[in-house]
Structure formats: C-alpha cells, structure tokens
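Researcher: Here's the sequence for the chain we discussed earlier.
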Amino acid sequence: MFTGLVEEVGILKQKKQFGNGLRLTIQAEKISPELTTGESVNINGACQTVIQTTKNSFTVETIEETLKKTTLGYLHTGERVNLERSLQANARLGGHFVLGHIDTRGEIIENIPLSASHELRIKIPDDFSKYIVRVGSIAVDGISLTLADVRESTFTVAIIPHTWKETNLSGKKVGDLVNLEFDILGKYVAKFLGIENESKLTEEWLKELGY
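Model: Thanks. This is the structure I predict for it:
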C-alpha cells in the first residue's frame, strides 16, 4: 500500500534481461539505506519487491505480467524514476490509497505550461474511461493527482510547481507513456454496479435502472 507521494526521484543504473523479465538496479541515495530485501517499493507507480540493496542502490526483478501492463520495460539507463516506500500504519495518508497495481499505460498528448502550474492531458484506452471522474483521484507514474477535466478517453491533471520539480514529470514530453492506476474505490463501485465490462455509463443503461 502506498500514498502516491513521491519520496525520491531515482536513476536507473542497470537493466539486465533474465528470461523474459528484467532486473532493474535503481540508484536512490535517500531510500536505499532504509530498504531491506523482500520489502515493497513503488517504481513509477508499480509495486516491486526488493531483492538486493546497497547503501545507495537497490535491485528488483520485473516479470512478464508487469512488463505487459507498465512502462518499466521501456525505461533506459540514466532515466529518472519516481520512488515511494510502502505506507507505514502510523503514517499520515497525504495522497490517496495506491496499491501499486498498474491498470494500463496512458499517453501524454498535451503538455501545457501555465503561469503558476502545468497541465498534462493524457489519453487512455477506451475500456478504462469508466474509472475517471472529474476531481477524482488517479496515480500517474505513482504520483497521486486529481482529475481536473475528463473527456471520454482523455483526462487532464494540473501539476503544482512542487510536484513538477520533485518528480519525473518535468522531463516528460508529448508522446511519452505513463503508468496509470485508477482509484480502487471507483473500480469497486463499477464492479458493484455491474458496469466493469462496459466502456462507460450510458443513457440507455441508466434508463434501464429507472433513472
């Protein structure tokens, strides 16, 4: 369990193939000394298990299922990644509940600098549009953000200067892919209402329920 509040931006130092998976070694001066083997760590939103640590780096093994759903396989040596250790039971929940289970990849289609912030518009696969609602929560590359605007299969998030500076978002450009985890509460609501296999809420569906 995580909060979507990035603790450190690390650097991918090594990427090695093992079978159809990858071993990723991340340089992280701040959190590495406190990580232990077997512990969970969030890398760009994806929960991974630490298999080795040094005083300034740690290594994880990323398997086929993770590579299929996330951007971890697209990372290149020297790239900056968002990092967060797992949530402690006595810690404040400053973001929202983030499981580290990536739902899909999104594509940045607009990067708009404003006078006091930045806006990113992100395109998602149609099947996931049912999970996005205006002012709802979403994790983008492991960052807890609020949906500022929703338009069918795209959404916009507003990035405050602190988040822009302290995460990897400042290096993102149009066309880049990002990991997305939709709010777990929204997914359970969709399941409860029986729309988990629908592309979106429709007028016809609501009429069938008597609305």
